[in-house]
């Protein structure tokens, strides 16, 4: 049976409830809303032309409006949107469990209550109201501050989504992310990756619930949104909120949990690096199996950092989720998130990928000299940086006036001596040494010093994980000379030599190396190791590029450079340069 409840509500709002039988007689029901404007042509600025309302695609006015005055028709057209808040439903087996996508007009109200607080936003959110009603619940009311992610609650009558955090939650809060870019290709890229990773049902990979595209008003770009389960914090906030460690928390079970999270994140990265659409749950094979349409993919995250690792205090997951012991711990679970600059590549291009805008602090040294090319080992370096900061917090975060992670951040500046090729100071985990005719790249000395300090009186687990970080993950790789069949030698790379031949560990090898650590007894995590007094057994590898820093900068400016976020010091320098340029232009204009 057809429903006319929305039609009746609109008619009551505009004082024409007595005409409801006309709509029933001509079968203009709720399912036909919104009605389309007809006969307005191209409106001129400031001119309101009469129009009619009709069913979409019919091209003729709807009969119930035949004797209506234009003022009433216009009021109906405006009020109809107040009844069209969408219902969001999760994907079903009939949809092949794919993420559902909603294309909505900017005029449709969104049934969201925007909750106060920053949630997992990277910036500050300024709530416009405690809730939203009518047309104010549309796109415009969701803008605020510098935030990209909002904490929202969808009206329970308008969705059947699950947060997967707790099986008993009723109408839980969710996280909605608005992409800053209006580039539909970039949106589809991120959704494509997240949809493929959803099929993995891995507890250490963020779960995409649904997507939205808000069709902009005339002359405005469309906006793109992603909706996720709401995390309790990101890893950066996790460290901040738990310093110093609450008394009695750093037990064997807690350190074991850290070990499990490291292994789980390595396995999650394997799923991205070796993405097999038809068999995405295993990490045992180096080469992915092609799907029915022959599309094996190798993914690269490109921006692994604490802000892109989310912490959920509780996580159940959708049906079929891998439920290892690390998900059942009372300490929660960490998930890899934010695939905005990630890329999927076929086999023959996986080591020659170009990336989007990454964060320089956690980027490997090849961003300085290999320009826009990167491979999956890029992520291994970033994960190694995060693991080292995590160990810094774990080992040294029991006391002190300042968080040891912040102290380590300051130490990496090397007293303002750690500078980029251009000369701005930076807090990278590598260090650039400039000579007259060459440029050397090495592990930041602050990294080695931190590891030496943490080894003092450390447990076997701490010793083992620090060795993995320093000798397997934070490796300044030599230039790879072996090429895959069909690959061409890049003609814009400078000549480089290394004092060693070590390469970064692959994510599969890393996962296999970390897995047995969590299975040791409690003494492995808490008792001091007999190896704690050992010094670093070998010096980290150094790479020498046989061009000066200035020559490398010139070469980079002539090619498509790898896009990285500036440090605060670089932003300050660039701001000063822009202001000075503007001042000089104004002086010249007054001459």
TrEMBL record:
<keyword id="KW-0808">Transferase</keyword>
<dbReference type="InterPro" id="IPR000719">
    <property type="entry name" value="Prot_kinase_dom"/>
</dbReference>
<feature type="signal peptide">
    <location>
        <begin position="1"/>
        <end position="19"/>
    </location>
</feature>
<keyword id="KW-0732">Signal</keyword>
<protein>
    <submittedName>
        <fullName>Kinase-like domain-containing protein</fullName>
    </submittedName>
</protein>
<dbReference type="InterPro" id="IPR011009">
    <property type="entry name" value="Kinase-like_dom_sf"/>
</dbReference>
<keyword id="KW-0418">Kinase</keyword>
<dbReference type="GO" id="GO:0005524">
    <property type="term" value="F:ATP binding"/>
</dbReference>
<dbReference type="Pfam" id="PF00069">
    <property type="entry name" value="Pkinase"/>
</dbReference>
<feature type="domain" description="Protein kinase">
    <location>
        <begin position="135"/>
        <end position="462"/>
    </location>
</feature>
<dbReference type="GO" id="GO:0004674">
    <property type="term" value="F:protein serine/threonine kinase activity"/>
</dbReference>
